[in-house]
């Protein structure tokens, strides 16, 4: 009758075998290649790189293939791989002012040096299913223009010239790294930005949205959103100067926020900042909104008790790898705890029903 | 066989050193939660990443490892963690409590008393005993540093006033060495008295980035009141396989009409008793 539960090892092996088969799907359909994912599911690749905190499109594409398109699972694979990588050093800060922009828009000025460049955006597409795509037609090539070679100045630099926007405090301190040091509070803006940059897109979006709906509202204008490639430079001690080691694609968002002034600051515009690997506009804008809301203390604003102002809450729950791991662990066996609860509830019920009977008699 | 691409027991030596420092600090300040820079492991948070990191920093090539979950060596996650160390550390593994030098556990303390030369590593989901009374880490750290544990006693008192007894059956809070209130991880309160033992006890919480420890022969007191003393409880049965009356039992539903049997949660304890000729009510029926 009772067979002691044995065979966990074989069950695991069999489950893995089945999983591999399911991942492949119908073998009459050609297998998806990693370059196909890298080139044609690029925004998924970008998200995996951003939240995986590792800029490597090929590895991110491989992770998406391995995870059957479950992006959080793919991010997890990248994170676990990233931890094992040796660290050679830190790059010098990337200069986004020198970005070769594919896209650059401002919601605050009709035109500015560098112009408004829409770039490859979904923004004005009508969201109608394109059934032609199902037929795999060739894509006609898009119109081309001369590339701009001059640097594109940041929109906020014009406001700064007028001294009407808050100046960012300057610091040469090495920024914190929450993958190397345990998170502690108050975390500081450097660690906040790192946490938001690798935080779950859905979570950061939700918190940002809540500020727009009035929970610590701070009306944000997208001062500028730019997407493009920047050079990554590193100082090599033997050389004594910085050399180019490659380039990465980034999305940068600077918001310009209304600010009527506070006890400590005069009326001026304030900023929120978002910087994300790849083309990830939604995430970059959301990050900027949450960054701005978290700066309430620094700007002398009131804490209205909103989620978006609560550094400990936001940072403790932004990481989807932590969240999904802990959430899903409840499917692990809990027989032992459940057994002790079972006995407790039985005992409490016995006593409670006993008392009720006594009262009835 | 060890996967050559990874260091012994997966983690690099620098990381192990960082974790060992946290462990030593934990042993020096019993029950205090030491923050450590938990790494992302190739298994999910909440599935033993803290325990795995502590075990990885503790294991030497000569160690013999035992991994249990719910008291059993053969539960899937225990199998998975054991395989991880077989693969990355190549250490010997065992099911026998007596033969293990390092035991990683989730939710149980083995029934057999542990020895001085053994280390028990617990997987911890939420290391903060005050967390469900106060969700903010900034607050709970303050409460620990001020030894401000009134809130916990109020909670236990409210249990007594509402239910006539303390209604906490697992992860029952303890006070270590008269100082820190500690979460012993979600072990049933039946196991609490065993927390005073000869072996070293290390607790790892990966996601929450905390390590804490109870050194051997350290006083560990389960919180209670003079008139409502702590009571270690278990199902009021004997094991149906080995007849043990002193072990923690799992309840197993055996048929559609809801019949049940009770068996030792510690599978090694049960097996060794049966090997010694002990039998329970249903011993003949079981395989």
Strand order in the sheet with the most strands of chain B: 1-9-8-5-4-2-3
Radius of gyration of chain A, rounded?
26 Å
Shape of chain B: globular
Distance between the termini of chain B: 32 Å
Chain oligomer state: heterodimer
The largest beta-sheet of chain A arranges its strands as: 1-2-3-4
Order of helices and strands of chain B: HEHEHEEEHHEEEEEEEH
Helicity range of the residues of chain A? 25-40%
Percent of sequence in beta strands of chain A: 5-15%
Shape type of chain A? globular
- What is the number of helical segments of chain A per DSSP (H or I, 4+ residues)? 12
- Helix-strand makeup class of chain B: alpha/beta
Kindly describe this structure.
The complex is a heterodimer of chains A (361) and B (287). Chain A has 361 residues and is α+β, with helices and mostly antiparallel strands. Chain A has three domains: 10-82, no CATH class; 96-318, no CATH class; 329-360. Chain A has helices spanning 8-24, 34-40, 42-52, 57-66, 71-83, 155-161, 189-198, 201-212, 281-294, 311-317, 320-328, 335-360; strands at residues 100-105, 220-235, 242-257, 270-277. A four-stranded antiparallel beta sheet of chain A has the order 1-2-3-4. Chain B has 287 residues and is an alpha/beta fold. Helix content of chain B is 25%, strand content 17%. In chain B, the strands form three sheets. A seven-stranded mixed beta sheet of chain B has the order 1-9-8-5-4-2-3. A three-stranded antiparallel beta sheet of chain B has the order 7-6-10, with no helix packed on it. In chain B, strands 11-12 form a two-stranded antiparallel sheet. The chains are: A alpha+beta (361), B alpha/beta (287). Chains A and B meet through α1, α5, α11 and α12 of A and α3 and β11 of B.
